[in-house]
Amino acid sequence: MNVPMNDWDDYRLILALARAGTMRGAANALGLTHTTVSRRLATLQDARGRLFEKGPGGYRATKLGDALIEVAERMERLTLTAMRQQKAFGEDLSGPITLSLPEAIAQYLLLEDLLEFTALYPAVNLTVETSYRFVDLDRSEADVVVRGAQNPPEHLVGRRLFPNCVTYYGDRDYLARTPKEDFRWIAPSVAATDPDWLGNSPYPDAPIALLIDDITARHRALVQGLGLSRGACFMADPEPNLVRLTSQPPVPQQEIWVLTHPDLRQTPRIRALMDFIANAMLKKRDLVLGQLAQT
């Protein structure tokens, strides 16, 4: 028997299965068990008709399933808009904010500033989440995001600050004890396929000894004298035992942005946080650009 669907949870289930393509993936997205999702799908299909066909590559929607997925996507957009508008409501400087920023920026640039913000605005409940993924502000995965990006989503609003700059570094003790023919690089995995990274370095013939994608772990390996590396100026220049390997100006990377969703741009607490972060970053501009002289 084919009857109308009125339960938002049913639409969420078919949307999750359509996006994941597997029962396990849908269960993870919904925070449910594999058995619960399987049982609910079977109940749905008994009541409303065949929504998905299971094949070797996973679940694929039928024509009926496609139609309901389209409805579910519209419902989801409306729900997310309502959530953002509810969050934006209010004229005072209070309420929750979720800030997403890269771990390196949080740890090496803004940690003390964020603590200062919470002292200035004690009625704001600030949650800081670290990620290098550009979180989805449309889905309210965060309220404010700080990211390096060349072309962030055009509909987001905020401020472009300045580029993150990098150059080549080595530990003084490593350089003193290691013959040049034994120099080794510590690099992100992308460097293995990027000839410019190594080719433009002061030691292009030195091999890559260790690939570490995590920028913080790579920095710690550099500080511990495990090899040479290209690093962010704001992380490496303050380290007393690190020295630059070249007199060439640091190389600009992605621009740093402070962004929010248009629905939240007039919310007082959101504006306060974005202005605070932008001002804190501007005070550190020379450090990020690598324009502070090393001692």
What fraction of residues sit in β-strands? Answer: 15-25%
Question: Which structural class best describes the helix and strand composition?
Answer: alpha/beta
Overall pLDDT confidence: 88
Cα-atom radius of gyration: 25 Å
List the uncertain runs.
Answer: none
Description:
Helix 1 crosses helix 2, helix 1 (8-20) crosses helix 4 (63-88) and helix 2 (23-30) crosses helix 3. The N and C termini lie far apart (78 Å). Strands 3, 4, 5, 6, 9, 10 and 11 form a seven-stranded mixed beta sheet that branches. The chain has a two-stranded antiparallel sheet with strand order 1-2. It is an alpha/beta fold and 295 residues long. The model has no long low-confidence stretch (mean pLDDT 88). The longest helix is centred in the first third of the chain and has 26 residues, at 63-88. It has helices at residues 8-20, 23-30, 34-48, 63-88, 103-120, 172-177, 195-199, 215-223, 233-236, 268-283, 285-288; strands spanning 52-55, 58-61, 95-101, 124-130, 144-149, 157-171, 185-187, 208-211, 229-232, 242-244, 251-260.
